[in-house]
Design a protein that fits this description.
The chain is α/β, with parallel strands linked by helices. It is built from six helices and ten strands; from the N terminus they run ββαβββαβααβββααβ. The strands form four sheets. Strands 7, 8, 9 and 10 form a four-stranded mixed beta sheet that branches. A two-stranded antiparallel sheet has the order 1-2. Strand 3 and strand 4 form a beta hairpin. The protein is elongated.
Amino acid sequence: EAITYQADQGVFLWIAEDCAEEELVKQLEGLQALFRSPIVIGTRLIDVAVTFGIDANAARPMAQRASSALVAADEAARDGRRWARFNPASFEEADWTMSLLARLDHAIEHDELWVAYQPKFDCQSGRMIGAEALVRWSHPEKGQLQPDQFVAAAEQGGGIDRLTYFVLDRALASIAPINRAGRLFSVAVNLSVS
């Protein structure tokens, strides 16, 4: 019998003491099977997605293990897997992932983010008629980060508004002089559904 703890945003912590990994995996598979069918609330069917993260290192403090298991669950969800084991070699990556929103705020404030422009051409005339604004992050230690490494985190963590306004401000400032000079030039900015 195990105690289950509830954390924020649909995160649950389950401590399985002295449980062999093979038995734990069977339990996770069984829990996963429970959520394959939608949940019925009133007359509505609600699909539920569940992923699990495991940190089996009993020598580490519980708070670190909980954070590590959460990172592993996020990796499993991202990779389309049901569960993942936390890799102790990825401590640095876990720290990076867990503080990504704070680092993103810092990046906006310290000009680490910038906007690249993908040109749009008129096929008949061959003239460039606009561009698509694409956010980029030049991190001082990690180098060039791809948008898929930070945009999804901004969406999930509530930071997408600030990132979107940053891109909009930069894009409008870039095309304003072109339009003021009398040339019609448009810029497209991707918006998050959230």
